[in-house]
Amino acid sequence: MKISLIAGARPNFMKIAPLARALSDAGIQPRIIHTGQHYDARMSETFFRELNIPDPDVNLGVGSGTHVWQISETMRCLELEFTENRPDAVLVVGDVNSTLAAALTATKLGIRVGHVEAGLRSLDRSMPEEINRVVTDSVSDWLFTSEPSAEDNLRREGVAPERIHPVGNVMIDTLRSHLDSAKAMRRHEKLGLKAGSYAVLTLHRPSNVDRPEQLESIMRAVHRVSGQLPVVFPIHPRTESRIRQFGFLDRDELNGFTSIEPQGYLAMLSLMESSRFVLTDSGGIQEETTALRVPCLTLRENTERPVTIDLGSNQLVGSRTEDILAAVQRILDGPTRIGRVPESWDGRTAERIARLLEDLVQP
Length: 363
Ligand code: UD1
Known about the structure:
By secondary structure, the chain is an alpha/beta fold. The chain is built from 16 helices and 13 strands.
C-alpha cells in the first residue's frame, strides 16, 4: 500500500510524526512530502530532528508568497509528484495552505484523501484556515476527527456518517511521547525564570498582527502583564517584521516582554508546561495547554476547537486590552492547573488511523 504523507508548515510536523511511525509499524512506509511552505530551519528542520521524523522523500521548495500563489504553486508541484509517484492514498493534516493544496490536487487526480483533524470550524470565513478546512473536508474521502464538535459540524454539513472517523488528536500523541524529555530540558531556567511564575505568549495570526490597532491593543496588555510576571515571547518571523514595521520597538508602553527566537518542539513544550499561563492566537496551543491543564487565554473572538473551552483549560479573550487584563487577573487568582483532558486524546490516535487505513485503502 502506498501512502503519501503531506506536511508543509510548522504545525503540521508534530502531527505527521506519530503518523509516520504508526504507518511504518503497520508495515506501510509512507512517502513523506514536504511542500516547503515553511523553510527556515527553526520553523521546519528542527522539528524533523527532534521528533525523529524520517527526512522528507521530497521537498517541493514552494516557499512564501500570496496565498493564491502559494496554493497554486504547491498544486502544480504536487501534480508532478503524484503523477511520478502515484500513491494509493494521500494523507493530509491540519488546515494550512499545503493541506488544502494537497487534498485538492489528489482529488483532481482521482487519488483518495484522508484528512486528519477534520471537521473543525471557527465559522469565521475571514480566517484563511477556515477556508482550508471547509474545502479540504469537502473533497476528502475519510475524515478523521479529534473532538466531538468536529463530528457535529460534518454531520450538519451533510457528510455521510461512513466518511467520519472519530479517532482523537494526533498532536497529543506527540505531546505525550515527548513530555518527559521536554520537562527534563527545563528551558525556563536557561532564561532565568522560575517554574509557575512566568507567562508564555505566541502571536502570528494575520487578523492580530497585520493590523496596527489590533496588535497595539494586545501589546499594551502584554506590557501591563509583564509588570506582574515575566512574559516570554517566542516570536514568529511574520510578527517580528510587523512589530518593527509599525515602530512598536521604540514605544515603552508596548514593550516589556522577553522576546526569544521561534522555539523547537521540546523547548516550547517545556516552556508551556512550566508556565503559569499561556496567551496565544494559535490553534494547536489551545489543545496543547488543555492536554497540560495549563490555563490558556486565546487572543481571538472564536475557536474551531471548542472542547478546549468546554472541558479544557482555554478561554477566549479577544484582543481588547482591558478584557485581556481582566482574564489574566482571574487566572492569577485561581488554581494553577485547570480543566480536563478529552478522553480520546490518549496518545494512540495515529495507531487508530493506521489501523483504519489498512481497511479503507485497497491498493
Ligand atoms: C502558516 C499557516 C497557519 C499556521 C502557521 C504556523 C496558512 C494559511 N497559515 O501561517 O495556519 O498557524 O503557519 O506558523 O497556511 N516565513 C519565514 N520563514 C518561514 C516561513 C514563513 O520567514 O519558514 C515568513 C515569510 O515572510 C512569510 C510569512 O512568514 O511570508 C508567512 O508565512 P506563511 O507560510 O504564508 O504563513 P504563516 O503566517 O506562517
